[in-house]
Amino acid sequence: MNIEDYREFCLSLGDDIEEKLPFGKFKSGEGVLVFYVCGHMFSFFECNDFHVISLKCQPDRIGELKAQYDCVGNPYNESPKHWIGIDPTTAPDHLLKELTLNSYEIVRAKYKSKWASANMNKSRFWLTLFALSTLPAAAQQRPNILFIMCDDMGYGDLSCYGQRHFTTPNIDRLAQQGMRMTSAYAGSPVSAPSRASLMTGQHTGHTHVRGNKEYWHGQVKYGLNQDFAVVGQEPYDEAQPILPEILKAAGYRTGLFGKWAGGYEGSPSTPDKRGIDEFYGYICQFQAHLYFPNFLNRFSRSMGDTCVVREVLEQNVLHEMFGDDYANRQQYSADLIHQRALEWLRHQEKDNPFLGIFTYTLPHAELRQPDDSLLQAFRGKLLPERAYCGDKPSRYNPTSEAHAQFAAMITRLDVQVGEIMQLLEERGLADNTVLIFTSDNGPHEEGGADPEYFNHDGMFRGLKRSTHEGGIRIPFIVRWPGHVQAGSESDLPFAFYDLLPTFCDIAQIRRIPQYGLTMKKGRLISLLTSHLSSLDGISILPTLIAKGHQRKHDHLYWEFHETDMLGVRYGNWKLVVKHGKPSLYDLDIDPHEDHDLADKHPGLVRKLVKKIYDDHTDSPLFPVTLPPKD
Ligand SMILES: [Ca+2]
């Protein structure tokens, strides 16, 4: 049946629909799936040799949806023999209700009794339907996912990645118990777009948030201090489902502790509106410049919050937010956030899987922390020390001991990771939890930080904000007892946009009806026309568990407007473009990207430039200069 015949057939269905639908051919145990696309509901009955689709949308969309199905390939049966559409504007109501019931058995039973009218609350009905359609049949609990992502930690800042000035025993232990990945890349060389890539499964040539666009409005007074009444960053596109929404739809409990940076207060994209059950931390990454801030943000379903609120840190606001008096502030955000994350973890149960996104802000600038044993252990040890006089507009307070502060901050983070590992053990959750540790971008030199000193072997060129390796190559460790081989390593090149399909794979999610998404060959595929080509990730689960075929990217892609830089990794080759000028490096022999080979390989440069044009979509908010086409 071609699309025109199909459309005609759909439109012709009316009261005689029952005779036209061959329900008698349904076989026991065959599945029914429900999709929700752009506010339109349609359901999908899967059988051996035919399909029934009911569409709750305008009649002229039926053929379009059929075409989309053909375009992406039917995820359940590669060659369906028949397609039958039902136009809801002409089909009887009671039939539509029956058609969207989740069980074929129910459909058949009802059909036999001449479609007895169902009398049920519609919203409750859809909810039940979603829950049933997303849960896998397997009885065994799906794995928990705990993703710890720190802030601005460089590739060489852990002892298991070569750090020599201090050690990170807990994170090293995590690597010994799992896999250490050596070609992992952030989504972007800065915070907000790196998170956007993780959240949306898109690279920065596609995803909406590609930079640190700030929203600071109004004024409010906290004790002695003026602060902004509204803070945050550019919101995620509302039409693009994000990681916590997708896992929540599949029955996962979701918690995010740390930095959000995916929308401003009151915007359509705050944790409460984007699939997070419990949130504590900084909505705004600029606020996170202060480690002893005036307030933190909170959204807690368990505490009865109906939106994101500010929790004023009453002791902190008694003191100035810059200068000598700042030292009298005692409420340290990194510790407060960690305690709240542990509390959430303590409430997780074995019978319900969870997704924890711990976006801790350590060791991001500024270089300040409580003067406790962790800091004292490094005082006077990392000489020559470095002093920093502070930067009031950027909210970086001064320090006289930048080296000791930095080493102690990473040590503090390491201790916190150790506490998380211990709690998972105590709660009996360690074996069924995929625990990941990584960083959101390369090291910075703001707030007094001295990456030159700590990474003096200079493995990679460039810092935060650069698409050279130093800005985007990050440590990445995965532990999953019994699944990921202890002490293993992988040099598979991958980027944050691969994590959304990876997590769906781990969570055994095959279809996400609410968002019109399905997993196919390691990729998330959207049934929405406008998003067909914009989900960029490939699941890396086969590499993690050393099972199955690992599909690989042709290349990886980044762009960043602030420094006007682009990056393409293609096998051992790396193309870096700055202000439209391409440079080419061979990472196998030149990982530090010192020797530009663009003049020697013009054909390869042209080929990689073409990939940029394929990957890049224009963004008025975050413009970049593309290299000349030839
Ligand atoms: Ca960052």
The largest sheet is: 10 strands, mixed
How many structural domains are formed by the residues? 3
Number of strands: 27
Bound ligands, each once: calcium ion
Number of helical regions: 17
Mean pLDDT, to the nearest integer, reads 83
Structural class, judged by helices and strands?
A: alpha/beta
Could you name the key traits of this structure?
630 residues; alpha/beta; Alkaline Phosphatase, subunit A; 3 domains; ten-stranded mixed sheet; four-stranded mixed sheet; 17 helices; 20% strand; globular; disordered N terminus
Please provide a brief summary of the model.
This protein is an alpha/beta fold and about 625 residues long. Helix content is about 25%, strand content about 20%. The longest helix has 25 residues, at about 400-425.
Could you outline the blueprint of secondary structure elements for this entry?
Blueprint: H1 3-12, H2 17-20, E1 32-37, E2 40-46, E3 51-56, H3 61-72, E4 83-86, H4 93-99, H5 104-112, H6 122-134, E5 144-150, H7 169-177, E6 179-181, E7 184-185, H8 191-200, E8 214-217, E9 220-222, E10 225-227, E11 230-233, H9 243-249, E12 253-259, E13 278-282, E14 295-300, E15 309-312, H10 333-346, E16 354-359, H11 373-376, H12 402-426, E17 433-439, H13 451-454, H14 469-472, E18 476-479, E19 488-490, E20 494-495, H15 499-506, E21 511-512, E22 517-520, E23 523-526, H16 541-545, E24 556-560, E25 565-570, E26 573-578, E27 581-586, H17 602-615
Parallel strand pairs: 3-4, 5-16, 5-17, 6-19, 7-20, 12-13, 12-16
Antiparallel strand pairs: 1-2, 2-3, 6-18, 8-11, 9-10, 13-14, 14-15, 17-18, 21-22, 22-23, 24-25, 25-26, 26-27
